[in-house]
Design a protein that fits this description.
386 residues; 3 domains; 5-stranded antiparallel β-sheet; 17 helices; 8 strands
């Protein structure tokens, strides 16, 4: 299977938030340099009152104009001309009412930089500690922008960037005296900290990545030893990104986590004391081995957006296999030939060990389906998956 790749975006900024179709042909992108911008956002007293009157209805009724707010530059690494263009882009979004507090957006914007058009993640937020203050004075608001790669590339990391902003809201003091010492380094590190962890894990584990993919899919507990803080966080983020959390029923994942935790001697241990991580109690299967090869092949280009796209395709294929197996099981409740089809599917899909555990948890309260799963377990024990 050849994974789809994110490409550079060709649309104009005004229409770029719509998102491309899933079937578009994609080419590898080069992310080039990365940039950031932080602005203070101040609404006029009149706009603040209009937004506050009548709850949500008042906010909807009033669309801000350029005179209703001001943007003041606090920090950036963009050239002056490009920063002015970015500020104009953000002002247009604010005028359209397209920036909601705490909700990140991704678009494509053309700036006077060598890369020309780049992806832009932007988010309006208030500092968390100031939100709790009892005062008639509204808490200061900010708009942060991260620029690099393409719109489609950054879209893959929207959740990671939202979390990055959440950390900025909670932990960093945005007072001017701390801007240069704390905030600026944090903003400059956005690409390394939010985008590159998956790439670093792929480069670190190489052909051992299959065991990490297997642990993520099966929710096997993982213990990391002798790793520095960044490596430990990278591994944790990779496992979270590779898991099916949010893609299958929450109760299924909870039950699967409990089942895997209760199995003795099943925790995978990653020892990072040497130049290459050593794995103990590691599992794998043909499905994960095949996808590991896709990651290793992509490592030559060093593109973090490519790795994330491969990871998304990996999860999509796993979900498709789960749904196919569940369909076969429903058929097998009344048809012995369908039971044989279930068995053949489990043997040939490459991930029968994991799929069987997932559907067993999902069908625990369904007697007929549970009986089918029990028979399949017996078949698989007699003829292990290749």
């Amino acid at each position: 299977m050849l994974p789809a790749l994110p490409d550079g975006d060709e649309r104009e900024p005004e229409s770029s938030e719509e998102g491309g179709g899933a079937g578009e042909e994609r080419r590898p992108e080069r992310h080039g340099c990365t940039y950031h911008g932080l602005y203070g956002y101040r609404r006029s007293a009149q706009q603040g009152a209009a937004a506050g009157d009548g709850g949500a209805g008042g906010a909807v009724a009033h669309t801000p104009s350029a005179e209703d707010f001001s943007l003041s530059l606090l920090d950036t690494n963009l050239p002056a001309e490009a920063e002015t263009e970015l500020r104009s882009f953000i002002a247009k979004r604010l005028t359209k009412g397209a920036l909601f507090e705490g909700m990140g957006n991704v678009a494509s914007v053309g700036l006077s930089i060598p890369e020309g058009k780049v992806g832009c993640y932007y988010c309006r937020f208030q500092q968390e500690s100031l939100l709790e203050m009892e005062s008639d004075i509204s808490a200061p608001e900010y708009v942060v922008c991260f620029l690099g790669g393409s719109e489609k590339g950054l879209e893959l990391f929207r959740l990671e960037l939202d979390k990055y902003i959440q950390n900025l809201k909670i932990n960093l003091d945005l007072e001017q005296k701390n801007l240069e010492a704390c905030v600026s380094p944090y903003l400059r590190s956005w690409f390394e900290d939010a985008i590159c962890p998956i790439q670093r894990v792929v480069q670190l584990f190489q052909d051992k990545l299959a065991s990490l993919l297997h642990a993520a899919l099966s929710y096997t507990p993982v213990e990391v030893k002798n790793a520095d803080e960044r490596t430990e966080k990278d591994i944790s983020r990779f496992l979270a990104a590779a898991s099916l959390q949010g893609l299958v029923q929450e109760g299924t994942m909870t039950s699967l986590c409990i089942a895997m935790t209760e199995e003795q001697h099943k925790s995978m241990v990653i020892d990072c004391s040497g130049p290459q991580p050593q794995l103990h109690n590691a599992g794998s299967n043909r499905f994960c081995e095949d996808w590991m090869q896709a990651f290793v092949n992509g490592a030559e280009g060093g593109n973090p957006f490519l790795f994330r796209q491969i990871l998304e395709n990996f999860k999509l294929k796993a979900i498709q296999d789960i749904n196919n197996l569940k369909r076969f099981i429903r058929q097998a409740e009344m048809n012995h030939y369908a039971l044989f089809k279930c068995y053949l599917f489990l043997k040939n899909c490459g991930s029968g060990d994991i799929l069987l555990k997932i559907v067993k948890v999902e069908h625990a309260e369904m007697p007929e389906a549970r009986n089918v799963v029990t028979v399949l377990e017996e078949f698989m024990r007699e003829t292990p998956v290749a």
